[in-house]
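Kindly draft a polypeptide, keeping tokens residue-aligned:

***
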Amino acid sequence: MAYEKEEIYDEKVTAEIAVHVKEILRLLGEDVDREGLVKTPERVAKAMQFLTQGYTQNGTEIIHKAIFDEKYSQMVLVKDIEMYSVCEHHMLPFLGKCHVAYIPKGRITGLSKIARVVETFARRLQVQERLTEQIRDCIQEALDPLGVAVVIEATHTCMQIRGVQKSNAVTTTSAFSGIFMTSSRTRNEFLNLIK
């Protein structure tokens, strides 16, 4: 059985968003009193709060909850982290996987904290380029490692189901700091490991 997170919503915010969603449905020509749509505004309001919960989270604090002194000085890689976000341009989902590596300088963090940092920044209205850099910068700031590498591979529904309608297009972004920028050997090791 998959672990389910407890979902907590601000009832006032839910009600306020729902009013606007109901009006959008009306403007689209829908009968907002139709059985299938009666609860839709509240559902959409809760979904939007869930998809943007990263605004209430702090990636640096997440890492600081699990920092350990450790002499390990080789690459730590967490790859294929599932990632779901919402494009700020069309408010449609983009999803894919994120690969994060760092080389410790006397301190490591719990592996789940890396995935939580990805989720914290993904659960905001985003562009993939900024998301990639925010993850890198957060881990660099919180751990002060020798370097951080982040690669995100994602498909964007705003490109698949509207506009250009290219369903097989995958966008890849990368962000590096420290030794991943200065050492092609280290960077290539990371890139080979995520293939």
Q: What stands out?
A: The chain has eight helices and seven strands. The longest helix spans residues 11-27.
